[in-house]
Amino acid sequence: MSDVSPQEIRELVLDALNLGEQYDLEEVALDGQLFGDEGLGLDSLDALQLAVTLEERYQVTVSRDDGPQVFRSIETIAQHINAHQS
Amino acid sequence: MSAADGIVISGLGVVSPAGFGAGPFEALLRSGECRVGPITRFDASQYRSQAAAQVPDGIEEDAAACGRAVGLPMTRRFGRAALYGMAAVAEAIESAGLHASDFEHPSSGLLFGGSTAGTPEAEAPLLELAEGQQYWDATTADRFLLGPVGSTAVILAHRLGMGGPVSTISTACSSASNAVGTAMHWLRAGRCSRVIAGGADALCQLTHAGFNSLSLVAPERPLPFDARRQGMCIGEGAAFFVLEAESSARARGAEPLARLAGFGAYSEAHHLVQPRGDGEGAATAMRRALADAGVDAARVGYINAHGTATPHNDIAEARGIGLVMGSRARRLPVSSTKSQVGHLLGASGAVELVACTLGLQGGFLPPTSGWAEADPEIALEDFVADAARPQQVDVLLSNSFAFGGNNASLCVERV
Amino acid sequence: MSAPVITAMGMLSPLGLGRAAFEKGWREGAAAVASDSDGPPVARLARFRARDFLPGAGSLLRRMDRLSSLICVSAAMTCEDAGLGEDTADLALGVGTDLGTLDETWRFLARLRDKGPALANPLSFPNLVPNAGAGYAGILLGMQGPSQTFCQHEICGEEALGWAAEGIRAGRFSAAVAGGAEELGEIRLRAETVANCGPQSGVPGEGAAMVLLEGRERARQRGVPVLAEYLGTWTGRTASRSPLVKSSSYEGLGSLLETALDQAGVKPAQLGVMLLSAPDDRLLAEVVHRVVDGDLPSSDHHVRVGLYPADGALRVALCSLLLADPTLSVNARGELRGGPVALVLTVGRGGVCAVTLLRESC
């Protein structure tokens, strides 16, 4: 299975969380912090949704413990998927 | 009614995971047991949690005699929530010493609080749809029409032959508390002289799937305020009250069961799902209930908590109790009936108010089943751990907090 | 005791987005009915994008379902029309909706069936409760007064308004945003045909209508014009063959109307206009005819903006415009209202019915 690009993940995340209502594409930096007020303001509800989205799309699981590291940025999500895709 | 006349509960009825009636429900409360168990209503094997508190089979038969006696026959035709509601309403009418015909006049009203109504029946054809099958070929108009949350109230009103106001409030987990509180307002305004108020909710896959998706459901049982808590379990059932002015109840020789002294409603305006962590949302609802009742916080002897056993709610609610009760909070008995019957969602406020009323009448405090381990983030100490306690209080609060930060609190007094 | 009055509104209707668009469309006799591709005529909101009206609310908007955004935008419009600025913390909020987020609920269930419980959408579920819209509106506008969501089928709009008016009268709060909203989704559209629960004539519509209710004294102190006095809402139930369908006889409705008039201190001769939930329903018009002993000008909203279960709120808002401006036509035939009191009359599934009376402000 070929690697997913951060761009692809960004599109997926924007779509899954309807972030287009809040941010333009350029505002979502690939290495930028996603969660919290210093980031894009994502919260635990978003984390749950992202986990479901990644499971469905890539059959890759993100455990609750792994969540904070995996969801740090678009790039870390891409890295996680590429490391765990079968 | 005059300003001095209070509003009382002159009758109550309940369908719970303990079965039909206040008798089995009180026995459950006193026993301290938990009625959460494996879901058998649908195949729950694929869910994160397979636990819920189901109403046992046989409600139609168990409530039949009561229904006949008050002129409200039971039927399963309209689905489970309606059946549970019918049975609880029948018991409430009987316990108030009244008959269905006493509610036909427009001076009687019905106020219903619930979240799912006939969803178990409406969702089934959709969930069982075969490949290529069309939904509208797999269901009936009636089945579909059971779905909207206002359907249970009209079913009950129809079967009672009621001509007065019928209303449905649906504010998620605070629905029934809001219904009871709004019924108080109807009576104070003279809109009705008697109101049947309460709620009903039946277990369905929609809500079980929804709360599971939010990771809010415990795998085995809810442990409110306990350090080991992992979330809620859904329950089902119904609870209804006959509410009227105290003078009107006494005039016909009915003995009131409790006085509804006050109702407080507050909108947190914070987050759709999470409560305000500082407890101010919870505190404001309680303060408003006390203010409405003209009761000082110092007189509150017990709080029946919203107590869902989710990590967030219990901390926020405990903080709120601390803000309102001050130094008394630490030792104040606070318990969660959800520990025994699960979370009845829209109907929870009503079934928990029954627990409060039975406790006031019977001189006991309902327990928090299974409580054993203190959470350092919760600065309360007395959860009426694991067993009902013989204790007579005069004033209590009953809390229900919902999605959308919709908070409700009822202040109830012993008569 | 504070007499509740209507001083502002927020309207999202097929005639246009906002009060001004609605008033203009109504004044010009416009109708906003069109056919979906090869389907029956419907009245839909055109080009509604919440972000056009709530800039800077992206973090909330992205979470919301469409119905919630209708409720939020109309509530925000109401507050703006009222000139409240930041002064919203004490506002109560009453919302009426019958079917809520029906399509989204169906999608959630279909996905549950097709993909299994582990892949159910967590972001979608909180939006399925009928009070989601009220919850979001409270957060958006900082409203911390009591918030209730009513769902008693076709009278849900009046339930919300009546609750708000009564709360002001009883002094529980000094002002409230209240009204109703309903979407025209695929499931409802199909259900109205297949399940025979829709309007007998007129077209299915959608929208949101909210008004600001406040005490008369408070309006005077704020120096704002009063559109109409809210005399009250009276609800009841007429007998119906089945609790799931509308009644066909309306027995008892006449007496509810008489009780309402009596308690409001209004003589039947003072009624100047009626806005019925089903304007082509002869039996319904007949009930009014008997009580009033004559005919009243009747609005034709059913063929101009369509019908939806929560539209009692739209009719109340329209009433307040008719009462504030006697030159505004009641219908496209150019009829004007007569007397100073307006009647909003609704009948619904299970026999529920509502009578609402409003009076022109002196």
Q: Outline of this structure?
A:
The complex is a heterotrimer of chains A (86), B (415) and C (362). By secondary structure, chain A is mainly alpha-helical. Chain A has helices spanning 6-16, 44-58, 67-70, 74-84.
Distance between the termini of chain C: 19 Å
Helix percentage of chain C? 25-40%
Please write the CATH class name of the largest domain in chain C.
Alpha Beta
Intertermini distance of chain B: 18 Å
**At the third CATH level, what is the topology name of the largest domain in chain B?**
Peroxisomal Thiolase, Chain A, domain 1
Biggest sheet overview of chain C: 10 strands, mixed
Number of domains of chain C: 2
Which runs of chain B of at least 5 residues are low in confidence (pLDDT < 50)? none
Which CATH architecture of the largest domain in chain B would you pick? Answer: 3-Layer(aba) Sandwich
CATH superfamily (homologous) name of the largest domain in chain B: Thiolase/Chalcone synthase
Overall geometric form of chain B: globular
CATH superfamily of the largest domain in chain C: Thiolase/Chalcone synthase
Given this structure, which CATH class of the largest domain in chain B is correct?
Alpha Beta
Question: Any low-confidence stretches of chain C, pLDDT <50, length ≥5?
Answer: none
Structural class of chain C: alpha+beta
- Helix tally of chain C equals 12
Oligomerization: heterotrimer
Task: Describe, in plain words, how this protein is organized in 3D.
- Chain A is an all-alpha fold and 86 residues long.
- Chain A has a single domain (6-84), classed as Orthogonal Bundle (Non-ribosomal Peptide Synthetase Peptidyl Carrier Protein, Chain A), CATH 1.10.1200.
- Chain A is built from 4 helices and no strands.
- Chain B folds into 2 domains: 7-251, Thiolase/Chalcone synthase (Peroxisomal Thiolase, Chain A, domain 1), CATH 3.40.47.10; 262-413, 3-Layer(aba) Sandwich (Peroxisomal Thiolase, Chain A, domain 1), CATH 3.40.47.
- In chain B, the strands form 3 sheets. In chain B, strands 1, 2, 5, 6, 7, 9, 10, 11, 12, 15 and 16 form an 11-stranded mixed β-sheet that branches.
- In chain C, helix 4 crosses helix 6 (132-141).
- Helix content of chain C is 34%, strand content 20%.
- Chain C has 12 helices and 12 strands.
- Chain C is of the alpha+beta class.
